[in-house]
Amino acid sequence: MSEARIRPRQVLVLIIVFLIVLKLVHHNGKHTCQGPEYLQAMYAQQEAGTLPHIYAITPTYARPAQKAELTRLSHLFMLLPNLHWNHCGGF
Fold first, then answer.
1. Across the strands, what pairs with 84?
2. What is the pLDDT of residues 5-58, one digit of tens each?
3. Tens of pLDDT along 74-88?
4. What are the boundaries of each domain within the chain?
5. H-assigned helices in the chain
6. Distance CA 78, CA 60 (A)
7. Virtual CA dihedral for 37, 54, 46, 31, nearest 10 degrees?
């Protein structure tokens, strides 16, 4: 069996790259994720009255990928407060 040798220089380069990526992810994460405020729209019952009601009507026709598309759409709609979704069409 051949033995793979790792040189100290390669290890040093890998550690430096890992630390740079870790620093970038940590720094960018502070700006993109707001912790509990990120999910505040889902749970803010007192603010739900101030938001307008949105009514979405989706007419569809039967096709092979319909269930997958409607499932994906329903997961998106569950994130929106005060949304009323009416699905009209063939299954």
1. 55
2. 778 888 888 888 888 888 877 766 555 555 566 565 555 555 556 778 888 888
3. 888 888 878 888 888
4. 8-50, 51-90
5. 8-32, 40-43, 45-48, 66-77
6. 19
7. 10
Token pair of 79 as six digits: 């994130």
Query: What is the pLDDT, as a whole number, of residue 38?
Result: 55
Question: Which residue matches tokens 């405020």?
Answer: 37
- 71-80 LR contacts (CB < 8 Å, sep 24+): 79/41, 79/42, 80/41, 80/54
State the pTM of this model.
0.42
**Chain-centroid distance, C-alpha 78:** 13
Sign of CA dihedral 27, 31, 34, 39: negative
Q: How far apart are CA 56 and CA 79, in angstroms?
A: 14
Place of tokens 């992810």: 25
